[in-house]
Amino acid sequence: MVAAVGVLGGVLSLTALGGTGNAATSGNDAGNHPKPQARADQAATQEASDARIKITPRQGAYDVGINDPVKATVSNGMLTKVTMTAIATGAEVPGTLSADGTSWKPNGRLERATKYQVAAEAKDAKGRSVTGNATITTVSPANNFIGHLSPEDGSTVGVGMPVTVNFDKAISNKAAMESKIQVSSSSGQQVVGHWFNNDRLDFRPKDYWKPGSTVTVTLNLHGIQKTVTFEIGRSQISTVDAKTKQMTVVRDGKTIKTIPISSGSTEHPTYNGQMVISEKFKQIHMNGATVGLTKKDGKPSYDIEAVPHAMRLTASGTFIHGNYWGTDAVFGKVNTSHGCVGLKDVKGGGDGKQPAAWFFDNSMIGDVVIVKNSEDKTTLAPDNGLSDWNMSWSEWVAGSATG
Length: 403
Known about the structure:
Layout: H1 35-44, E1 52-56, E2 71-75, E3 78-86, E4 95-97, E5 103-106, E6 115-123, E7 129-137, E8 147-150, E9 156-157, E10 163-167, H2 174-179, E11 181-185, E12 191-195, E13 200-205, E14 214-221, E15 224-232, E16 236-241, E17 246-251, E18 254-262, E19 273-276, E20 279-287, E21 303-312, E22 319-323, E23 341-344, H3 355-361, E24 368-372, H4 393-398
Parallel strand pairs: 9-15, 16-24, 22-23
Antiparallel strand pairs: 1-2, 2-5, 3-6, 4-5, 6-7, 8-10, 10-13, 11-14, 12-13, 14-15, 16-17, 17-18, 18-23, 19-24, 20-21, 21-22
Active site: 321, 340
Signal peptide: 1-18
Region (Disordered): 25-49
């Protein structure tokens, strides 16, 4: 499932985008799971709220000015709670709710080079609730250079994290632009760029980054040079086997845990392929109606306000997340979701001993999750999120503009 705003899916009612592998682990797939699970899913499904939250700037916005207008608004309802938090420090930004309860904005200017998460809650006239979330990043000298560069300067990421440059505008002379961006690793691995379109350029080595290495990105443009460095942490590669319904977590070459899972049903199979964790949410709202996944009566196939321990795997909507509505008859035994990978959890996610909590606490941005033996017959696009590793090295190198 994807975290996106408003119509784009997510945080408005953090939702899924796209088709296959895009939905929350909810089990309203008739006939493919035990009756206890069907009852649990029915209990988790609610009538959709008429309230619609909009967060400005949009989900994933980069280079947001520190004085730019940031706000949360609602139509057909009233805001009940809005928080804006600096993700790195947890510091909350003071804000003011309008007298009529339809808008919220921060009280002062934001900090530079900071990633914030805005979380909004609202109710419609019938008391039905909806949740909205958006993650935005303010301008910094490095990221404002030619667009947005990830990962962040000084961060520590998993071995699957590519270097991604999203340009502010389409690049016509790709070779000239690519030549101005140099990426190297202390491991000595060869790093090559690949253009996915006219405004996205990714860099990666042939194989995953070496654990413990340092990656340096040097940008030279308009006579100015800027350098960004990030560290590669331990290696963690988790493999989801949709057939056996087990996930094996391998850290630095050793299996440290095997977790029973429930992946996509026959009607909504999970993507096969190599995916990379790009975002982590302690809780997220998933609603099928925002992506056209509804039942015959028009109600959403799933509407779950607080899905715990959710980590995004693709931009189109695949998540690996906690599932508190599934019974023990599900995990490791039957695939019930609309495309996500579900791990056993409790409502609210407060039990650290649950499999989903353990995996969330032991995962970092850039970790690799591989899905195999799913019934899905489509091909996961390498530019769907950070799925770069699904392209062969020869294809990858062919996408470089510098030869």
